[in-house]
């Protein structure tokens, strides 16, 4: 199952020099790249995909022909050496994120790395340090954060319409357990539901609260059939001011991607928090209010935000330090799940 596949309308174009394009190279032919990120870049106002690489030339040429990409490379090293590429998108398995992000940055390329950015916070910090050293832009590919609905949600909270925040509950689950050869089920490769989908509600809570968690307690279904990765996890992240994120994530459960933000006098219900329809609902004593948002292509918005940060037309909204902080939270959740203890950050 490709839970990242979405159908969106093209984002509204803003005033921009349409002759200027950020030239992208893609390292790998993963489904998220083929079905979502590459089409998003092609639909963006700022980007063009000029090359794609795979471990073998046949796969690269096949994907390039299918997607109308001019150049194909049979190795990752070749695409990094291409001087006509400005930025690299990395959709490789999690355990390869740090290596190839750093190698791309050493080659002078800006990097958009698929989530989670690394296997742990230490790796993420090494990537952040490399970006600073080489003067390039590094971003983690959480596409949902670039849709304007989250700015509106934060504005509603700030207005006091739902009162003081009391908690957030998030869920992201899907069922792909039958695909035993999937990279998600290789523990040494960064497999498991916390890495794959738990990172979404964790990042969303940090975004909404503008704060970092102080402790994590997570219970998980560790499956011997799937190389002992966490196939389902349920947990609580404790934030300052006695607010908590409760969440569940899974790769062996029915599909959901929801978020609920609870206040003292109302709540915000987001039925499709990360993919699909961006409509959400505000519940107060006055009833239920629908907030209809445009179905913009979140991947195109992500590409445009990346390019404008590279060109210094916009301030960087999500820095490498944010990715490091998200990995610290994931590290704590994984430690708690496997040790069955509460972990402080």
TrEMBL record:
Keyword field: Oxidoreductase
Highest taxon above the source species: Bacteria
GO MF, any single term: oxidoreductase activity
Domain spans labelled Gfo/Idh/MocA-like oxidoreductase N-terminal: 22-140
Gene3D superfamilies assigned: Dihydrodipicolinate Reductase, domain 2, NAD(P)-binding Rossmann-like Domain
InterPro entries: Gfo/Idh/MocA-like_OxRdtase_N, Gfo/Idh/MocA_domain, GFO_IDH_MocA-like_dom, NAD(P)-bd_dom_sf
Oxidoreductase in keyword set: yes
UniProt KW Oxidoreductase keyword: yes
Domain GFO/IDH/MocA-like oxidoreductase: 150-269
PANTHER family named in the record: OXIDOREDUCTASES (PTHR22604), TRANS-1,2-DIHYDROBENZENE-1,2-DIOL DEHYDROGENASE (PTHR22604:SF105)
The family this protein is said to belong to: Belongs to the Gfo/Idh/MocA family.
UniProt protein name: Gfo/Idh/MocA family oxidoreductase
Species whose genome carries this gene: Paenibacillus lycopersici
């Amino acid at each position: 199952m490709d839970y990242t596949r979405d159908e969106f309308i093209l984002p509204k174009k803003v005033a921009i020099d349409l002759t200027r394009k950020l030239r992208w190279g893609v390292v790998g032919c993963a489904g998220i790249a083929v079905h979502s990120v590459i089409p998003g870049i092609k639909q963006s106002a700022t980007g063009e995909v000029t090359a794609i690489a795979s471990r073998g030339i046949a796969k690269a040429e096949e994907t390039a022909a299918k997607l109308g990409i001019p150049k194909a490379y049979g190795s990752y090293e070749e695409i990094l050496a291409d001087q006509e590429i400005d930025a690299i998108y990395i959709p490789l398995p999690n355990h390869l994120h740090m290596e190839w992000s750093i190698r791309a940055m050493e080659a002078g390329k800006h990097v958009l790395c698929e989530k989670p950015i690394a296997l742990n916070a230490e790796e993420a910090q090494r990537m952040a340090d490399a970006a600073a050293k080489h003067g390039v832009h590094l971003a983690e590919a959480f596409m949902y954060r670039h849709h304007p609905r989250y700015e509106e949600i934060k504005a509603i909270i700030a207005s006091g319409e739902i009162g003081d925040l009391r908690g957030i509950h998030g869920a992201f689950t899907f069922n792909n357990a039958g695909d035993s050869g999937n990279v998600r089920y290789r523990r040494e490769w960064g497999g498991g539901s916390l890495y794959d989908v738990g990172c979404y509600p964790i990042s969303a809570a940090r975004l909404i609260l503008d704060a970092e968690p102080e402790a994590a307690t997570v219970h998980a279904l560790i499956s011997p059939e799937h190389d002992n990765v966490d196939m389902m996890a349920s947990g609580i992240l404790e934030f300052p001011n006695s607010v908590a994120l409760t969440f569940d994530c899974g790769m062996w459960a029915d599909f959901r991607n929801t978020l609920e933000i609870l206040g003292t006098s109302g709540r915000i219900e987001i039925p499709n928090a990360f993919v699909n329809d961006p409509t959400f609902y505000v519940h107060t004593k006055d009833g239920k209010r629908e907030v209809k948002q445009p179905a913009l292509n979140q991947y195109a918005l992500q590409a445009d935000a990346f390019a404008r940060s590279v060109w210094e037309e916009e301030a960087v909204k999500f820095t490498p330090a944010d990715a490091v902080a998200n990995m610290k939270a994931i590290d704590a959740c994984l430690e708690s799940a496997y040790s069955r203890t509460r972990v402080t950050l």
